[in-house]
Amino acid sequence: MEKGLLDYSDTLVGRLWMATRTLLQMLQDRGYNIDWEKDVPLFSDFETKMRPLDLADPGKSQHLLNQLQRTIYHEPTGETIEVFWVCGKVGKNSDAVNDISRILKEKQRDGRTVVIVIQVEQCSISGPARDELRRHDDTCLEFFDTGLLLRNIMHHRLQPKFRILTESEAEKVKKNYCVTSDQLPSLLWEDNVRRYLGLKVGDVVRIKRLADGGHDISYRIVQARQVGKKKKYK
């Protein structure tokens, strides 16, 4: 069976392995120089390394999860992805928040850095902790939980195909349909496809859906995060 179909969701370590697989698929789909099938570790090797993981002991577990942290470069754009895995109750003054804040401070001087924070099941990041991280640059932070990453929503055969348009392509679409950016249908900031692809505000995407007798083509533009609503932190 292919790695993309293997299901180990009956154990904690198995779910972490599956989340790692989806993470690498996601970064490859974003254009990073990754071959996820080669980069995903064998489950047997992963299980041996992570077997002592026990969420009842967050300190010990965080020490193990630190082995999954990685830095990935995107040479064409000069962008850097920093991946952090966190567990337990993460507060404003926790080591995890301090480490991520330090990376944001250091890397942003050299170029754009995106920090992906992956919350292991039962993990909770406090509101003050999130606010402390977002104080550096709200657009550089992405939060996922392992439950969302168990299966790849973009690799399902019925999932519509998304393609990010270049600026010139987006302008051509708006000209052809005689619309402005404000008149294009919106893709919300909270949308899981937007999150998966790491789309930025103002990005225009082409969406190709299966339809009776062929395909249906539509376009959407990414909206900024809605403000003014009370945030709910998990």
Describe this structure in words.
The protein is α/β, with parallel strands linked by helices and 234 residues long. The chain folds into 2 domains: 143 residues, 3-Layer(aba) Sandwich (Dna-directed Rna Polymerases I, Ii, And Iii 27 Kd Polypeptide, Chain: A, domain 1), CATH 3.40.1340; 63 residues, RPB5-like RNA polymerase subunit (Eukaryotic RPB6 RNA polymerase subunit). The chain has 8 helices and 10 strands. The strands form 3 sheets. A 4-stranded mixed sheet has the order 1-2-4-6, covered by helices on one side. A 4-stranded mixed sheet has the order 7-9-10-8, with helices on one face. It is globular and about 60 Å long. The two termini are 35 Å apart. The C terminus is likely disordered.
